[in-house]
Amino acid sequence: MLNIDNLHASIGGTEILKGLNLHVQPGEVHAIMGPNGAGKSTLGNVLAGREGYEVTAGSVRFKGKDLLALAPEARASEGVFLAFQYPVEIPGVNNTYFLRAALNAQRKYRGEEELDSMQFLKRVREKLSVLHIKDELLHRAVNAGFSGGEKKRNEIFQLALLEPSLAILDETDSGLDIDALKLVAEGVNLMRSPERAFVVITHYQRLLDYIIPDVVHVLADGRIVESGGPELARELEAHGYAWVSDRIAPEAVA
Amino acid sequence: MSSALLDSLKAGFETLPPDLMNGHGVGPLRRSALISALHEGLPEHRVEAWKYTSLRALAARPLTLSNVSTAVDPALIADIPTPRLVFVNGVMDADLSQIDALETGLQINTLTQALRGDNPRAIAVLGRRFDGIANVFARINTAFATEGALITVAADAVIHTPLHLVFVGTALEADVISNLRHVLELRENAALTVIEHHRGSGNHRNLSNHLLHVHLKPGSRLCHARIQDEAVGASVIARSEAVLASNACYRRLDLELGASLSRHELNVSLQGDGAQVIAGGVLLADGRRHLDTRLGIEHVAPNSRCELPWRGLAGGRGRAVFHGGIHIRAGADGSDAQLSSRNLLLSEQAEIDSQPVLEIDADEVKAAHGATVGSLDANALFYLRSRGLPEAQARTVLIAAFCREVLDVLADDTLVQRLAPLLDTALARMEQTA
Lengths: 254, 434
Fold this sequence. Notes:
The complex is a heterodimer.
Chain A: E1 2-11, E2 14-24, E3 29-33, H1 40-48, E4 53-62, E5 65-66, H2 72-78, E6 80-83, E7 90-94, H3 95-109, H4 117-131, H5 136-139, E8 141-142, H6 148-162, E9 166-170, H7 178-191, E10 197-202, E11 215-220, E12 223-228, H8 230-239, H9 241-253
Parallel strand pairs in A: 3-10, 3-11, 6-9, 9-10
Antiparallel strand pairs in A: 1-2, 1-4, 4-5, 7-8, 11-12
Helix pairs in contact in A: 2-3, 6-7
Chain B: H1 4-12, H2 18-22, H3 27-40, H4 56-59, E1 64-65, E2 84-88, E3 91-92, E4 106-110, H5 111-116, H6 136-144, E5 149-153, E6 163-170, E7 176-186, E8 191-201, E9 207-216, E10 221-229, E11 235-244, E12 249-256, E13 261-270, E14 276-285, E15 290-299, E16 305-314, E17 319-328, E18 336-345, E19 351-360, E20 366-374, H7 378-386, H8 391-404, H9 413-433
């Protein structure tokens, strides 16, 4: 589904990703862990198409298409969803209005019938009840004045509503207390399906106690330096990231 | 500044109907106002109040004084409900107007009627003096205004149905200037909603020069929206002089969406304890439009309050000028003044000049003012696009949100829902031409 090969990306002339490879199949959950500055958020942003990043080498194919050639809105409509580390507050734009506009823009792109407000609200109600999200969230402006937990849950709600085939969660656990973390993880687990893949970017192993990944990757200095099963996350937790840098040191010399 | 415009006015002065020019002895007032205007000429940029707005192009064009009625396609104003008073090129259109069966307490006359009638008080406003070159259009108005809406609401009368004032400019053989003088007077505890619509038909380059006097007696409440959506070549001068007595409340919204040049001056004197003005607006300067809004709020009485949220957008080669002047005089203790001027610069050739000026001579006041000029938030734009909204739509959503909160100054959801589409239409028009 997602094939990243030898991806090099820089920002402001500084190279952040230095030959990253990642292959994700439908239904899989991949966790990407790594120390601060390793390039975790850059990966999410490059995949979603944020401006300011320059891809200098390598390729990203999503369902066979060249993802990097697409505008951010086209990537979304093709099924890529980025849950932001810092969801943006947009005062004056009603959350429901925004969600319906987004969903219908995606449907239009895909040549599907747009949903009228009744159909849309029906879909919203289904998702709300499953995710234990209060109606009230819908009537407010997008993320405006939301608490950290509310913002992250709103991201998961959007994820549930838009039903992407690839969801990238960029440090969705950051700034959450344990209860909020559990709610977010529960939402993600409800969304797991054989057709949908997840890339879960996180600094801490904690989230992975609740979202059990199929594969764990360690990202350091712009590359995946280690891949393994869920046990790799626990090893990292036990030894710290220094343990990884020690292990990659010889390669860096080479 | 030598001026073909002023020369044409001078020549036209004697051609107007003598009964309207001299009714109730206003002839000498008019003549003196004209002489002052001709003597001082039009202000150049050295005059502080006109620093950012050049009158050079306007000054070079002779205009004909408008005093004959012109037919206009009723479809142009079919969406505007009644009661309504319609003026075409400054002349009242009795067929399109509908002011029968008004609610009790609401009284509407026209300046023409008053000048020919037997109530000299009705035209007392023409006696107001305007000194100095900066006030040249008020003087021209005094010299030439023979029409306008004179509206009074009786004490304790709460008028429920909004009154619509419609001003249509149309293309004639020669470009015209129309001068209108209006009065809105609300007696004690009266309440009224007034909506002004300024529209254009055809590709005209007329100048309309409005001067409105607002008198709000104690406890009265005026809700006033003005939608300036004139033809792209039109010039609009609008000035409001409002005086508020104790606990009077003036809510006002100005949407500046059209014309090539629009100068709007809003002067409010908060003369009574607890008087308040909540006035906001949107300046949409796209294409080659030049919009200049100048506020002068005087806190004279204690515990008076102003809240002034303004938004400016400049795209294309447009220019938005905003001056927010607030003066809290000695003795106006306990006053509260809030001004925000937030602006979006949407193109490299566009320009925004925003100047909040706060002068405080009283003790224990609350005052805050701020002005910002920026571009659309790149993070917000990316966020919307990452959810599937195409870039153009994402921009429109953000721009509309930026403007729309100002509509809340009216504190009337029904009215806001009626006006929001007018704003959206203008924004969509802007996006199309961008």
